[in-house]
Amino acid sequence: MDSDPLQVSMPTSDALIAAGSTGLIYIIDETRVMKRCVYGDHIDLATERQAYKRLGSHPSIAGYYGATKNGSAIILERGKCLRDIYQQVNADDIPIHEKLRWATEAATGLRYIHGKGIIHADVGCSNLILTQDRHLKFIDFAGSSIDGEEATVCYEWCTYRPSVPTISIQTDIFAYGCTIFEIETGRPPYYEFELRSDRTRHIERLYQEHKFPNLQHLMLGELIRNCWDNKFRSMDEVIQALTELTQKINMTTH
């Protein structure tokens, strides 16, 4: 999977499909994309390359194919951002068994990431892609913490509760709970505050006060709440609970 340096032509501006704080994403072909540095800073991409190399091949991690010679871009597996998909479809039209599979794929991917000494630090539907065969995979390790090094990102406005330490396995699990909320409902927690200028501070305060969105009618509500209440100490525990919950749901929906 890792064959850098690669000889790849730089794509034209019309191939740009996404832009984030750490990179610009360009289409190369049907199976690959290029992520280029923002502002010419290669530091974040160096972290991301290190993470992808350590993670290697895993069913829930986007494929890494190498870097360009000057280190200004990396080549990754192509997929569609899960949040973008939910913005185009009604969440109720996605079968619960598929949502459960996505929740499981995200959980096993995050367990694997933690097992490799990495804290993702930005777990969410914006950093999960759906591949052509409709499997879910993690992307974007540019700001992750590796072996306890300081992370250079800190989640997004709807997935973080201020904690000590700032970034940890527990904060990743909290954000995973927010991700599962979005997978089931199609919207991030507290989506109604998205347009507020102080949305991050406002939602963090709500989380600190243990005020969460209503989960009463969600099939995955108990799992989500346990992520938010720090009931899980590891993704192993999350996966065990998710497996048991999946079995119960399958019994009631068949």
From TrEMBL:
Domain Protein kinase: 11-254
Coiled-coil ranges from the UniProt annotation: none
Superkingdom to which the source organism belongs: Eukaryota
GO molecular function: ATP binding; protein kinase activity
UniProt xrefs under InterPro entries: Kinase-like_dom_sf, Prot_kinase_dom, Ser-Thr/Tyr_kinase_cat_dom, Ser_Thr_protein_kinase
Name of this chain's protein: Protein kinase domain-containing protein
Biological source species: Phaeomoniella chlamydospora (Phaeoacremonium chlamydosporum)
Taxonomic lineage from the root: Eukaryota, Fungi, Dikarya, Ascomycota, Pezizomycotina
